[in-house]
């Protein structure tokens, strides 16, 4: 076997031609073969030690070894029949195949690289076109002064209700807890809508604000209810709570208080409305609507909002009642809704473009509701942001069930 690498063996034919025509030097071989100095030196020594030039010129003479003869014949292009010659030919063929495959692989790599560069170039071009096409965003639509109204809805607070955890399996409820619950919900709604430029506030009051309607602790229809404390004390604390709430709201915008009687407090809510009229009679920032009609309507630009407790009439009829009771306002408006309490759960019905919303309640479940299975509704308060031109813009919730329980100093054992 020759003491040459496959690479050197591939260079041998050209090296032998050079040695037969020129002085055999390392630098001459290196320049002729375009190879490294070590490879040229190795080939030089190999040709000299094997006397390959002499053998090539005198093929008729027997060379020192048959291997040298085969190498010389291979270098000159002759194909002998010896096994060694066969090995040399196969080795050369293998080298050519490897070189061809290497070239093919490199060509494929270069082709893939060119495709990737072309794709990246196309993406850059598209990105530039898109950036040019993107216009500076317009400013957010700003609402003119007087365009937005905030409706505060906290129906069915039932101040005066008494609920015992041992009887209901839920949180306790009494006068102090009811007032604290209302105040927390109101502040939460104000905080969550503070970024709207509100021009007027519709504060719906009543709607079973009180749990009982008289000192006998019964509802308007005479149904006895679980009551915490004395009726007159509950009324006074509730009146103070509502006055404080209105004072808080009037710091934001003009307030329209809409008294809505409920089936628990029809008379008491009217008395409260009369007290509020007297309290704010000289305040231009507060208007109280205490008319005793069961359904009331507020027109705000293209919006018509109806309010009732929901205990009288059929819920599915409220949309047609609106059209019949205020036909002129109906004709001027496009966005119409009726908001009800009474059911203590959230539901929205829509018919012929009129939405009837049954609103949630902040009150807790008492013993009677627990026995009847009226449990599980989420306790929450809501508010609505109305635009004169665009209708309902936002509906904001305050979930009481997500808050920490309110604890009073006196607990029922």
Q: Can you offer a commentary on this structure?
A:
It contains 13 helices and eleven strands. It has 413 residues and is an alpha/beta fold. It has a six-stranded mixed sheet with strand order 4-3-2-1-10-11. The chain has a five-stranded mixed sheet with strand order 5-6-7-9-8, with helices on one face. Strand 8 and strand 9 (354-358) form a beta hairpin. Helix 2 (26-33) crosses helix 3 (37-50), helix 5 (66-76) packs across helix 6 and helix 8 (175-192) packs parallel to helix 9. The chain is rod-shaped. The chain starts with 5 loop residues before the first helix and ends in a 14-residue tail after the last strand.
Question: Strands, helices and their partners?
Answer:
Elements: H1 6-21, H2 26-33, H3 37-50, H4 52-57, H5 66-76, H6 83-133, E1 148-153, H7 165-168, H8 175-192, E2 198-206, H9 231-250, E3 254-260, H10 266-279, E4 286-289, E5 296-300, E6 303-308, H11 318-325, H12 327-332, E7 335-340, E8 347-351, E9 354-358, H13 367-372, E10 380-387, E11 391-399
Parallel strand pairs: 1-2, 2-3, 3-4, 6-7, 7-9
Antiparallel strand pairs: 1-10, 5-6, 8-9, 10-11
Helix pairs in contact: 1-2, 1-3, 1-5, 2-3, 5-6, 8-9
């Amino acid at each position: 076997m020759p003491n040459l690498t496959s690479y050197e063996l591939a260079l041998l034919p050209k090296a032998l031609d050079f040695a037969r025509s020129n002085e055999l030097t390392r630098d001459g071989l290196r320049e002729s073969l375009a190879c490294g100095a070590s490879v040229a030196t190795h080939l030089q020594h190999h040709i000299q030690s094997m006397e390959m030039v002499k053998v090539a010129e005198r093929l008729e003479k027997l060379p020192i070894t048959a291997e040298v003869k085969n190498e010389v014949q291979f270098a000159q292009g002759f194909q002998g029949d010896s096994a060694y010659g066969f090995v040399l030919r196969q080795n050369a063929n293998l080298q050519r195949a490897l070189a061809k495959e290497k070239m093919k692989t490199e060509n494929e790599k270069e082709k893939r690289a060119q495709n990737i560069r072309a794709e990246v170039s196309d993406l850059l071009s598209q990105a530039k076109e898109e950036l040019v096409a993107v216009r500076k965003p317009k400013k957010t639509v700003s609402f003119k002064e007087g365009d937005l109204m905030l409706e505060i809805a906290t129906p069915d607070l039932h101040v005066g209700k008494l609920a015992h955890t041992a009887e209901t399996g839920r949180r306790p409820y009494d006068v102090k807890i009811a007032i604290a619950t209302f105040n927390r919900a109101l502040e939460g709604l104000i905080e969550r809508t503070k970024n709207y430029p509100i021009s007027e506030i519709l504060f719906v009051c009543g709607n079973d604000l009180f749990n009982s309607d008289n000192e006998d602790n019964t509802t308007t229809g005479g149904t006895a209810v679980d009551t915490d404390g004395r009726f007159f004390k509950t009324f006074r604390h509730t009146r103070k709570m509502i006055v404080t709430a209105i004072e808080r709201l009037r710091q934001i915008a003009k307030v329209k208080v809409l008294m809505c009687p409920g089936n628990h407090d029809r008379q008491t809510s009217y008395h409260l409305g009369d007290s509020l009229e007297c309290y704010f009679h000289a305040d231009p920032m507060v208007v109280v609507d205490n008319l005793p009609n069961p359904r009331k309507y507020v027109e705000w630009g293209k919006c018509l909002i109806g309010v009732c407790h929901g205990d009288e009439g059929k819920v599915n009829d409220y949309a047609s009642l609106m059209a019949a009771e205020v036909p002129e306002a109906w004709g001027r408006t496009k966005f119409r809704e009726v908001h009800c309490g009474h059911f203590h759960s959230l539901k929205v019905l829509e018919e012929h473009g009129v939405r009837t919303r049954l609103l949630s309640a902040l009150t807790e479940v008492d013993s009677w509701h627990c026995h009847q299975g009226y449990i599980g509704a989420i306790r929450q308060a809501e508010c609505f942001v109305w635009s004169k031109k665009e209708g309902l813009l936002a509906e904001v919730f305050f979930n009481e069930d997500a808050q920490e329980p309110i604890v009073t100093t006196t607990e029922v054992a």
